[in-house]
Amino acid sequence: MPELPEVEALAAFLRERAVGxxxxxxxxxxxxxxxxxxxxxxxxxxxxxADATRHGKWLxxxxxxxxxxxxxxxxxxxxxxxxxxxDRLATTPVRPGRSPLALRVRLDDGSGFxxxxxxxxxxxxxxxxxxxxxVPQIASLxxxxxxxxxxxxxxxxxxxxxxxxxxxxxxxxxxxxxIGNAYSDEILHAARTSPFALTGKLTDEQVDVxxxxxxxxxxxxxxxxxxxxxxxxxxxKRRGMxxxxxxxxxxxxxxxxxxxxxxxxxxxxxxxxQYCPTCQTGGKPLADRRLSKxxx
Length: 296
Hints:
Blueprint: H1 4-18, E1 23-28, E2 48-55, E3 58-64, E4 70-76, E5 81-86, E6 101-107, E7 112-117, E8 125-129, H2 136-139, H3 152-160, H4 166-171, H5 181-190, H6 204-225, H7 230-240, E9 264-267, E10 272-275, H8 277-280
Antiparallel strand pairs: 1-6, 2-3, 3-4, 4-8, 5-7, 6-7, 9-10
């Protein structure tokens, strides 16, 4: 699933190529992906792309329409969705069917992009709204972790306001916007913290270390994704991971010095997390939740 760094890079990619261009056509290939019906997607046609921005893991294409009221095309790529840009987009009408194509936006110079989703579990969500806050998931987003509002004190407030596993807090979009499964693994590895450490038991020093890890890991990932075309972002994300998705491989160490251990995994019903016992859990492997009770 694309997370904050990749979505930030996608927004910049679209901003560079689409701003100032007129929307020539919008075609819906998957009706189920379209979560709103007023305004209709056709309201975008004839408007000029004014900006491309991000809200957490949501992308937002703002279009200044002929009526003078901006309309926002916002979407969440979920686990298997993606943005596929073409300098010469197909002009054939989009027909709903079993194709991965969910939505096509063609611009006046012939360029544009497709929103696609692979697999049978369709979770990609597309909204056409006059205000992004009309999308409940956007209205409920927590603080942006790379914004000035995300101070150490603000993070400490979030940590002290509840008692839950720290990985769950990092992934909660209503607390911190944009961090998902992959970057929460990377942040906790950098912070030498167990993914199942309870927030209520974290010391002030641990809170400081996790806060700095959030800022550092995300800032580095954003910098590495910046300027890359959409087609390269997935591979770039995989290459940048130290522990996530690297089960059984040697741990590179939280500070870049190999620790001698291997990356371990805990599996859930439809996801998994990766961590290093030496770096994060005092050398003790965490039990797989499918098999036995967690070890903390």
